[in-house]
Known about the structure:
Number of domains: 2
Distance between the termini: 57 Å
Strand content: under 5%
Number of helices: 10
Helix content: over 70%
Shape: elongated
Largest sheet: none
Amino acid sequence: xxxxxxxxxxxxxxxxxxxxxxxxxxxxxxxxxxxxxxxxxxxxxxxxxxxxxxxxxxxxxxxxxxxxxxxxxxxxxxxxxxxxxxxxxxxxxxxxxxxxxxxxxxxxxxxxxxxxxxxxxxxxxxxxxxxxxxxxxxxxxxxxxxxxxxxxxxxxxxxxxxxxxxxxxxxxxxxxxxxxxxxxxxxxxxxxxxxxxxxxxxxxxxxxxxxxxxxxxxxxxxxxxxxxxxxxxxxxxxxxxxxxxxxxxxxxxxxxxxxxxxxxxxxxxxxxxxxxxxxxxxxxxxxxxxxxxxx
Length: 295
């Protein structure tokens, strides 16, 4: 089972945590899990009772949900504005804005879906709904890509220098352990190969090179995990357990290195697509609101 690398930026500085603990820390906060579960539950329940028409877009709760949803989607604009407008830079920390941006990016589409009762209306409303769903889906993809080169949900960006420092730390800690000759050879091969990749990625790297490096690191990760399993008689708190954890964490560091530049590149491409789609959503939603109230 893959151990996810999730470090909360609300805690102490990431780099001050013990080396192995940084990579083996797992599982998002309880609030995030509850929020996700509640959102899915509301969507499933609303879908199951959609034919009863408890919510109608033109009046009552349905109308109110449309106003709330549209307002939340407009408020999403505050996050990019906060990063670009100088007079807004003192308004809360950027991670707080990012957290708000992601929460509203879920609640806004949720309200709009409930407002529409999962049904397509006029051509204009159908286009507006489709654009909103594209933005919401695009946002989930962007969140996934963002997490691949940042420390946790709201953490700072991963740097090659930090990856290199962590790699050196693992090498030093594992090298002093009692390893078999094949394990020592594997460790040296991994270390020197990873250092070459880090040096290479500090320059302009083609997508083909990134994919080749990712394949090599994935292959080495499998070998590291097999080497980890060679340690027999592991007990909690023993030197063998510590070495066992070092091998697991080292495998996760290789995952991070393998995807760092690749996901940075993909995130840039995602951003190029996401912004025009977001603008399209705002325009179509504005036209929809004007048409509905005009007629």
